[in-house]
Amino acid sequence: MAIVIPFSWLFMLLFVVSVVNARILKLPVSGNLISDGIHDSGNASSVLSTSNCVHTYGFFPCADNIGGYIFQIVVYQYLLIIGGKLVTNGSKTLFNILGTGVYGASIFRILTVLPKMVMVIVSGVLKTKAGAQVKVTFGVGVYAGSTVFNLTLLWGMCVIFGRRELFPRAASTSGSSVSNCVMAKEKLAQLKDTGTTIDKKTCYTAGIMLLSLIPYIIVQLADVAKSSLETRVVILIALIVSTALLLSYFLYQIFYPWIQERSLEYTKYENLLTGFLHHVQRHAKGKLVDENGQPNIHVIRGLFHQTDQDADKSITFLELEKLIHEIQCGKVQVEKDYAMSEILKVFDMNKDGRIEEHEFLEGCTKWINEAKQIAESGDSSGRIRNVFRPKKKRIGITEIEHLMARILKHAHNQALEEEHLVTDDGRLNEERIKALFKQFDKDNKNSLSWTELEQLIYNTVKSGHSQLNYQEMVKKLLSEFDTDGNNIIDEHELAHGVTKWLNKAMDVTKCEDARRSIDEFDKIMWGEVDDLVYEVGQGDNMKLELLTWDFHISTFKVILGIAILTFVSGPLMTSIQQFSDAIGVPSFFISFVIVPVAMNARSAILAIFPASQKSSRTSSLTFSEIYGGVVMNNMMGLSTLLAIVYIKDLKWDYSAEVLTILMVCAIIGLMAYTQTTYPLWTCLLAFFLYPFSLVMYYVLQYVVGWGNQV
């Protein structure tokens, strides 16, 4: 809602200006005018007629005055932002789950531009030819405004927040003897001595952005066409070229997935953060953060000593590898090499290849604070927010399913390879059961008593000792295993119960590998499966077996977001058109400026965070995402527009928007393609291009007359 409030004030300002009264000379009313500013004309537009208030879809509210239009715009814009957020978060989670492939190369790319694309599709498909001409113009303005916003304001802000010293600076002279001229010269020198650096792959992405301009150049030939037939031929050629480029872009990413991998890399840091913190929380004897929201140093120190298995007061390379392997067995799958490199970069402050206790404490504290910032931004997955949430589901937990899952895993993991709880053919290892029984039977009475069962539960369930109700858990265990009702469990009862629960684990996980089913059953019962599918290894093939909660939620978010965008886009454009007509403000100002800024403000804030890390890698990923978004905005947006114009035989009135996109993309694209360094002065160029493109668009549309808007 915070994003909408600034634009609400802008609409209120326009409202105040529109209702101010002034002394105006009486002028004769022209029959061609709706109003002379004082008197209503007899042929007033139905937009302002109280008798023609139409409810969209039959139940959406309608308005017939400026205040009503403002209210509708604010509400519809807020709903549009909510819909876009649902689509973005849902598609992002699905991308993290599915990884690179057909989804990442095509569907994910389409979903990134869907909020803007829906505005054009809904207006062009659901409207008559006359209505579609006006509505599609509004949608195209949003397209153009979004591209210009991302390559000017957002691009410039990322340069500012990601800047660092490009060259070693000489020691600055201090003292009162320094003249103002010298100080001003030093300030100006920062414009070229500071900036951000990017890698070559970011340059290649900028090159792809330049190639996406080819159909824009072709479609501009429609302005020199001498007949409507020639115009349609030009539009058809541009449509074919644009569609071919779009499909080629998808296929290129499938066979050469480095663009997908960079997009996945953009969220990989958050994944590592999530996996690491979940591992800490899962193995900690307490909460990761205290009641004041600060890192719990005692808990973090305990994990350090647990990881430092040789007790040499430092975590070695081999111990770090084991830690990462344990993280990979948790909720989030992280790439081993990336995790090793990133953890050493953050934790190993003296670069000696070992992580000492104070380094571990400082690194964990840094990551906890960063994770809190990501969680508070509202764009993180539920998994990272859960790190800072009380584990309510473990308070008073007594479910036998949870307990047995952990007992099976404990017994299985403690065994040697030749003494696994189950054999290779899936049968229960009776010798291992006997050894397990003797391990639990502390008093050697050939039975497991109440006290021994309590100790068994205590040793098995490591997390949250003080929160577990051991009395209830022992009762559950006895009711499940004690078949003769004597309140003790003998060896036969233990073997029978373990066999029963092993079969249940295999049935729940649908896993034919009994050994693996134990680990996966534990993950499912303790809510530690957040992947799209449960993957069962069968030789070299991976069989998709189990759709999990995270997948369903993410898919539901995408579907709900698309539904909101579809139903709200049309009414929003109608309200904006009515509002602009009522106060005499050109509708392009709202479609080109207000709506794109509102729709992209949230993504701009989120892009600034990685850029502010001031490293070449994070800056490269940030700018790659900007260029990739513009590529999809260009090709998908133009293909959609040309298809609607050609199919509905609309008049081509969008040359001003196309030329504006060409100008901004060409200037920023050429600079980005040829340089791996963006000095600070380049942000001034980017900021200048925004008002310049706005003025150029206005002049072309309303002065030169490239469009037919009034």
From TrEMBL:
Transmembrane segments: 66-87, 138-162, 202-221, 233-252, 558-576, 588-609, 630-648, 654-673, 680-700
Keyword Phosphoprotein: no
Residues of the signal peptide: 1-22
A single GO cellular-component term on record: endomembrane system
SUPFAM superfamilies: EF-hand (SSF47473)
Pfam families on file: EF-hand_7, Na_Ca_ex
GO molecular function, one term: calcium:proton antiporter activity
InterPro entries associated with the record: CaH_exchang, EF-hand-dom_pair, EF_Hand_1_Ca_BS, EF_hand_dom, NaCa_Exmemb
Gene Ontology annotations of biological process type: intracellular calcium ion homeostasis
Protein name, as recorded: Calmodulin and related proteins (EF-Hand superfamily)
